[in-house]
Design brief:
The protein is an alpha+beta fold. Helix content is 52%, strand content 15%. A seven-stranded mixed β-sheet has the order 2-1-3-7-6-5-4, with helices on both faces. Helix 1 runs antiparallel to helix 2.
Length: 355
């Protein structure tokens, strides 16, 4: 979704916990998908009416509810009742302008992070808020978009029973989701890296206003990426150090790996910001050099014509008694002197390497 469509003024003056959707205006139903699984069991269904959903009483079965779309307040409230979610959690879910964070409650851990997509048509980065609630035997995930499946690969691993996902608990599922989101950042940075390389070539070959515009767009995107990803480092660090009662010690080592990936991503973002600042300096230097070259040529031309203008001004005065005024060869002589002065100055400038 667009990063500029959030209007926080809609919540001004309302009490805490009031559910108001803040984000891109959407219509239509929310899509709710349920995956129930353990090592020997797997079931995936689409829930058409959340009012009829009853959580499984079998504690060996992990329930993963993925909600696509957070604009339907009634559905979000019903899910809050079913899983005893705090009103402030529900408020943060429908307010899609949250920064990455983690909050601990009595019966679940609440995590917010950002999913980033690269739009090939607009050549820009788009963002979607992902909200996660982790309980003893359930995981709730909330996405803004129905058209994009941020957890496609995680679902595929569950369906095919690949790896240890089906053998582990809900905390490992949350790790897999966060790891998938963080890995997608590398794809975004690869795209941006290609654009930066192209910009470097354009700045050196032919700096233009369009290049300057692209530099400023990329600088804004890097600021936005840093703002979206930097807080995630603290979230992962808190989890890795045992900040959640719902994530077992055996899973902390996996979050340590995600933390390392997050650090690499942040370092790459900082590197790209420095490179863009350097490209901007090169652009400004190139433009300045071009202006200086033009001014140099114009100054030389003005300098050459200065004595010629002086001679033309003297002999352009309309006095009756002027020296050389009646000479037969006066006019060709003055033109010859002017030509000689001009050629002499050009030769002098070339010897000085001013031309």
């Amino acid at each position: 979704m667009s990063r500029n469509t959030k209007k926080y003024s809609k919540k001004a003056g309302l009490p805490p916990g009031t559910l108001v959707h803040i984000g891109e205006k959407k219509t239509g139903d929310i899509c709710v998908n349920l995956i129930e699984y353990n090592e020997a069991f797997f079931n995936e269904i689409k829930i058409d009416n959340i009012q009829q959903y009853i959580p499984s009483s079998d504690e060996s079965i992990i329930s993963w509810l993925n909600i696509d779309g957070v604009h339907n307040i009634e559905t979000i409230e019903k899910l809050g009742e079913l899983f005893n979610l705090h009103p402030l959690t529900l408020e943060d879910i429908v307010n899609t302008g949250q920064m990455p964070k983690m909050e601990e409650y009595d019966n679940y851990t609440f995590i917010v992070l950002k999913m980033l997509y690269y739009n090939d048509s607009s050549k820009s980065v788009e963002v979607e808020q992902i909200s996660i609630c982790l309980g003893n035997n359930f995981v709730l995930t909330f996405q803004e978009e129905k058209e994009r499946d941020a957890f496609k690969y995680v679902k595929e691993r569950l369906r095919l029973s690949k790896g240890r996902l089906r053998k582990m608990g809900p905390d490992y599922l949350v790790y897999s989701i966060i790891d998938s989101v963080v890995d997608s950042y590398f794809l975004i940075l690869e795209k941006i890296g290609e654009k930066i390389e192209l910009l470097e070539e354009q700045v050196l070959d032919e700096p233009s206003e369009q290049v300057l515009h692209q530099i400023h767009v990329l600088k804004r995107e890097m600021i936005f990426l840093r703002k979206s990803i930097w807080p995630l480092r603290d979230v992962i660090s808190t989890i890795e150090k045992g900040g959640s009662d719902f994530i077992h010690d055996s899973i902390h080592i996996y979050f340590r790996d995600v933390y390392d990936h997050t650090i690499r991503i942040i370092e790459t973002i900082e590197t790209y910001r420095d490179i863009l600042s350097g490209i901007l300096d090169i652009y400004l230097s190139s433009i300045s050099n071009k202006i200086n070259a033009v001014m140099k040529v114009l100054t030389i031309i003005a300098t050459i014509f200065m004595p010629l203008t002086f001679l033309a001004g003297i002999y352009g005065m309309n006095f009756e008694y002027m020296p050389e005024l009646k000479w037969r060869w006066g006019y060709p002589l003055i033109l010859g002197i002017m030509l000689f002065i001009g050629i002499t100055m050009v030769i002098y400038f070339k010897k000085k390497d001013w031309l």
